């Protein structure tokens, strides 16, 4: 007995463009009349009602059971109930890579490296010669992050683990 607008609202996480998105979902499911709607048992929701830009990175975070999707226009997170869109957290929202380390999610973008923890993004790596991050990879054994830079080689970040410590950086380039 759940109405289609309620399902779409929960899935997208807002009321923005709700009427037009409900129409997209109805068309996607072949619903043309109110009578058709009464007999729906399973409602299919097209991916494109949320993500309308090219996907550039995907990461499943097992510890929190969340799916992170990077696009050319921002970052999305899906908790298997609803989506959350992070666009205003980046000057250049083109996401290039995503990696997790415990409760921390590392995000590479054409604007640099960001750490997401406790619901907030923080820019990291202002020491990098090139802020166009191409890839990030967490080394669990050594507790360090490797960052590929478009024109700057590879950087290694050993993040601070305790209060009072500082991040340690190494840069490997020509």
Write the layout of secondary structure elements.
Layout: H1 4-12, H2 18-28, H3 34-38, E1 55-61, E2 66-71, E3 74-78, E4 83-86, E5 95-101, E6 104-109, E7 112-117, E8 120-124, E9 133-139, E10 144-149, E11 153-158, E12 168-172
Antiparallel strand pairs: 1-2, 2-3, 3-4, 5-6, 6-7, 7-8, 9-10, 10-11, 11-12
Helix pairs in contact: 1-2
Report what the structure shows.
This protein is mainly β. The protein contains three helices and twelve strands. The strands form three sheets. The protein has a four-stranded antiparallel sheet, with no helix packed on it. It is elongated, with a radius of gyration of 20 Å.
* Number of E-type strands: 12
Strand order of the largest sheet: 1-2-3-4
Q: What is the gyration radius calculated from CA atoms?
A: 20 Å
Contiguous uncertain segments of 5+ residues: none
Helix content: 10-25%
Structural class call reads: mainly beta
**Beta-strand percent range:** 35-45%
- Write the H/E string, N to C: HHHEEEEEEEEEEEE
